[in-house]
Amino acid sequence: MAEFTTFEHDVLVIGAGGAGLRAAIEASACGCRVGLVCKSLLGKAHTVMAEGGMAAALANVDERDGWRVHFADTMRGGQYLNNWRMAELHAKEAPDRVRELESWGAVFDRTKEGRILQRNFGGHQYPRLAHVGDRTGLEMIRTLQDHGIHQGIDVHMEVTVVTLLKDGQRIAGALGYDRERGRFRLYRAGAVILATGGIGKAFKVTSNSWEYTGDGHALAYDAGADLKDMEFVQFHPTGMVWPLSVRGILVTEGVRGEGGVLRNSEGRRFMFDDIPDLYKNQTADNEEEGWRYVIGDKNARRPPELLTRDHVARCIVREIKAGRGSPHGGVYLDIGWIKEKISNAEEHIKKKLPSMHHQFKQLAGVDITREPMEVGPTTHYVMGGIDVDGDTQMSTVPGLFAAGECAAGLHGANRLGGNSLSDLVVFGKRAGEYAAKFAKEHGQPTVDQGQADDAMRDSLAPFDRAAESGAENPYEIQHTLQDLMQNNVGIVRNEEEMAAALDGIAKLRGRAKHASAHGHREYNPGWHTCVDLNNLLTVAEGVARSALERTESRGAHFREDHPEKVSDWGQWNLILRKGTDGAMQIERRRIAERPAELTTIIEEMK
Amino acid sequence: MATATFKIWRGDASGGEYRDYTAEFDQGMVVLDVLHHIQAEQAGDLAIRWNCKAGKCGSCSAEINGKPRLMCMTRMSTLPVDEPITIQPMQTFPIIRDLVTDVSSNFKMKRSIKKFKPRPPDTEDGAWLMDQQDVERVQEFRKCIECFLCQDVCHVLREHHMHDEFIGPRHLVYAAALEMHPLDTEDRVADLKKLHGAGYCNITKCCTKVCPEHITITDNAIIPLKERIADEFYDPVTKLFRIFQPKKK
Predict the structure, then answer these.
(1) What contacts B26, CB < 8 A, 6 or more positions away?
(2) Residue-averaged pLDDT of chain A
(3) A117, A185, B80, B162: least buried by Cβ within 10 Å?
């Protein structure tokens, strides 16, 4: 059998973005020997792509803000499918996590009084996002990285995990390989935290990097854990649409927070045409009021461009379908227009949105201080994921924890912008703390060599197939899957297309069994693509199966054959589990009853 | 669709060679897009390190026609295609395979710099007060995406291989961000002189020229650090004072 090196850790963290780093720092602070596995180099994880900011009710800009308002906003945005306990903890603890980042060296933009500045974002009643221009994610990951490297954490860079190992019911560690040499590594650990991020690479147009292949989702699922809410995939309303090669790259919601407006080809601000009932009370009904909100008038309601992402994305699709789109199949996002309102607009835009200015200039030859951007929806985030306990972040497998995007619950049917970065640190910390506790209480597990041998054999199989007739190109399978998901399980869904998607996924699963890799194991991306295919296929099936089951439209999940929200569906989460026969099983699970005081908060804020 | 020929360096630590690949490209494509097409259709095992494809993660550093650049931010329209486009890995770092280099030395260098040590909070709720003007100086340095192109182009590292004596522009920028942080109370000046070799930089500004984030590395980070070192170690008046004063911890 293939050789491997063994590493011993009390807590193994898989994934080194914001959640993984914060979890590793916490577990280490609890006195554990911590291993941190990065799929890429340290500090390159997808958190660097986060732009707009980190939501926390610091109340630095508007003193009316507080955890209750943040909680109510998060629940409303998630259409009440959220794990209310997570929404409560998140709203209460986010301010402390922001201040903690500052104590570790983060440098946020300031108010006139010298406090942390907060900006407007969709679905948040008050300016709430602590930010650094439009590169807040970079600030967060660099702060955690620079703090973390002094905490005695063992960092394993450019390692892909291929399977979790179990000792009976509990988790026992993981098996992976390093990309550099292709050598296997066995990690024995008392507790494992998954912080692997999302699944964007299951779709063709996405803001996500190559790493986002649903690894944590699939690892947990294969280890017997429950997945939840997988039908809820967030399509960010504003991705770049042109040039084609950059299609999908994110355009921060911060553009709209700073006063950017959406227009169709007729020049109309179409977001005023459809304001959902749930938000009528909070949304401006004319342009003048919307602008007053942007410049901080506390009596004004926010402009409809700052409605939740699910709604804005659908309105953009509606305009494009009605033939009122821009030349390259998007709509216009205009920030340059604010020069009509403020004198130093050009300087202001470059200062508040430097990355956007740079990105459009460099990649599209567009100067956003003068010209409107062309934007359209892009696959951005998955609300669904590994089902976890709200307080501890432990999955249904003892000793297996999850935090950040790969965990489910906080965001319900739709995530508010800015709630992701705060999610990472709030629940990263909790996962680290409780995983350390679990590891200490349960001691080191025993590793079953047979599980490792199986995983190594499966991982190396693509090399053996290279010479077979009928060998498949893994890149081609991946591209076919991305097209299938984009066309059949995208923003607007129906039964027929999703059933076809499930058929297609089953066929691709068959083809993936023949995916082959040429050459040797050292830094071989063809091989890596073969290994990642299984994860992508699992999450794609999960999304399609759940979306087919939920016969209503809610949050990010829109069915043209069931366009209405059904109140009964508001009581249920959808759970996916691997059956004993290996087939994916789906069941409805009733949402736990909410404590009266939380319901009161929601009612009061309506 | 237009066509371009690429001369891509293929090989590993034991050696390698340039191989020619011809590929079509569309308007607006960047170099990394074309390499991905080559990877998917002609060379499945072509090793490339990349992540965000938006100039934010700093993974896809390489040398394009001899110039250190991010492959994801180099548009095909900016390159002449009547002759082959040469793509080689960064030359300052050991080769792993093809376009991927071993940049691990950077992570070790960074750890040798003393970490952030803030003053006690200014307010009762554990927060600090800072002026926007004061944080902006540091924010420039914190834009760094750690692509290590500045390390690649720095002749102290590239030609003289002084990785053990000199931390290079990236880490001088990092040290400057800490030293000029409004809240920081640590002193790194002695380390910068003795351990980190700040004196080796002779201000040729090559690093500033290649920085994709347009950080004015030399003028805003390195020169002020050199001035601090000069003040502390070479100023005759300070030197006289030091003889009579207890040493700073």
Answers:
(1) A243, A244, A245, B1
(2) 96
(3) B80
